[in-house]
Amino acid sequence: MEKMHSIWVTAIFISMIATVVAVSPIPTAGPYRSPELFDRNFYAGWRPDYTWLEDDGRTINIKLDNESGSGFQSKNTYLYGYVSMSIKLVPGNSAGIVVAYYMSSPRTDKIFVWDEIDFEFLGNVTGQPWILQTNLFANGIGGREEMLYLWFDPTANHHTYSILWNSRQIVWYVDDKPIRVYRNTCRTRARFPGWRAMNVYSSIWNADNWATRGGQDKTDWTYAPFVASYTNFSVYACNWEQPGPPPTCFSKSTRYWWDRPNRWTLNRSERSDYTYIRQQYMVYDYCKDVTRYPVSMPECSDRPW
Ligand SMILES: *[C@@H]1O[C@H](CO)[C@@H](O)[C@H](O)[C@H]1NC(C)=O
Ligand SMILES: *[C@@H]1O[C@H](CO)[C@@H](O)[C@H](O)[C@H]1NC(C)=O
Ligand SMILES: *[C@@H]1O[C@H](CO)[C@@H](O)[C@H](O)[C@H]1NC(C)=O
Ligand SMILES: *[C@@H]1O[C@H](CO)[C@@H](O)[C@H](O)[C@H]1NC(C)=O
Question: Which ligand is nearest to the CA of 283?
């Protein structure tokens, strides 16, 4: 692992020099236009028989019952980018259920240290609010959960959830409003995902041991199957098919708009949305949980911009 890491670091360094010298090369695939057909970037990798596409080819449903959950994932792996999709969550009684949408670097028998950026929707009994939980793993270390209530009913319509991941920050967006920022403060490389490519994943599964009121409300299988619907997929990102060399998407080209200076911090209107939403809707913040973390994680003292 250490050895592989240092090879990548060297490769990134070489490619940065190359980028400065050469005219920016075009990556093998992407950036893509939005919104895309599902098949363009994704496939159902977990129980395809529990998933089905609508006729428009742009909307996929995934289901959970007492036998299995299901899910899909991107065909490519990416280093930095902007990923977005619209999700309509399970209506009615959804206690115990988790609908997830996340980016994660591959984990295998040989690679067990990974990076991950999570959206996790925690279901609830009828009439009670879903919780949106976000989390981040850097170098295999997670435990960075935040939770908030949404300001709309996420089961009534599709709403857009996006991840902006660039060399300076990671931003979680709900309907284009930033709800969380994780910055690269350059103090330690291990703390910011920027050295491993990630796939995009979505899934629905049973987590009634913890999801709803800390595991008190169990999944009621008489309401199965539980179905979540996803549409309006867009992926603007640089492919990195490992173990190949990292992509050279770090140039100044406007083509790589997700990693331009205007996306390195939130702008004025985004800052005001961020502040308002967190004041009004936040339920849990690992940075404020002194019982769990008597000494808070280092990024807890970072400012969001
Ligand atoms: C799942 O539910 C179906 C229909 O209610 C039932 O027939 C089946 O036995 C259940 N399977 C398991 C593994 O509990
Ligand atoms: C479910 O509803 C209860 C009661 O309103 C609430 O305390 C809880 O935060 C809600 N969400 C989850 C995921 O437990
Ligand atoms: C999908 O995207 C289009 C174009 O951006 C938008 O008009 C439409 O409302 C979106 N649909 C959903 C269900 O989010
Ligand atoms: C702030 O950033 C968002 C997302 O990039 C953009 O849509 C919006 O126009 C920007 N607002 C201003 C005032 O620059």
Answer: 2
